[in-house]
Structures are given as structure tokens and as C-alpha cells.
Amino acid sequence: MSDTEYVEEVIVDEEIDVTVAGGELDVEDCLKTVFQNALAVDGLARGLREASKALSSGLGELCVLCDACTEPEYIKLVEALCNQEDVKHVDIVRVSDAKKLGEWAGLCVLDREGNARKVVGCSCVVITNWGADSTERETLLSLFSE
User: Fold this and answer.
1) N or C: which end of the chain has fewer CB within 10 A?
2) pTM
């Protein structure tokens, strides 16, 4: 990967709000819904090993990467796999909290009230199958088409 290549990213910390017919959606809400839909059809690759397999085989649709990762090689690897020329380009969304990303990706135990317990942090999640169509999916895709 050269220093002049452009990586298209959306950083969630900036609180981008998108107005839709029902009200406003932010990127975090869109990611939660899209992850739930993808998880229902086994469409998530969670962690470096699964994510790298999905990205190198061309199955990746969207990559969500955590900024709190302490290994710069990890981030470089994921960015390089997302920008491969022989495989389709995969857009990257960055989030700040690994625990929150792990909770969204289903790496937790839910108690009786539906609250997340024993959340495992996750540095990278790749969506391989979107599942059901939703306005949240279209909202995320429209962020990258601009």
C-alpha cells in the first residue's frame, strides 16, 4: 500500500446525523441495526482472522475498524486488505470503543432484561451478508457514495 492511496472512511465520533422520513439517524444507530440484520443470517466476520479471510476472498461488503487498537500493524493490514486492487474495494467505518463494537457484533451475553453482560472487545468486524434490506443500510451506503 503506497502512501498516496486514498482510504475512504467514515469516523463515527463526529456524530453524523442523516435525516430520513421517520426522523434522524446517526451512524451508530445504523451500524447497530445493520449488525443485527447481518448477525441473523450469519453475515459477520468478527476478529482479525475471520475479517482477513473475508476481505482476502472478496466477500467483504463493509469493514468496521476500532481506533482503540494498539497495534499499528493490525490497522495497516486491515486497510491494505480493504484496498486490494484484484478484489473489490471495501469501505471502512471507524468507531472509538472496542467494547461497544463487540456488543454490536454479538460478542456478549445478554441477561434476562436484555442488557449486555461479559462484553468482549472487538477490533474489526466485516459485513459479508447484509441480511434484510433496511433504511439504515441505505443510509450507510449513501455516506460512501457522496
Assistant:
1) C
2) 0.75
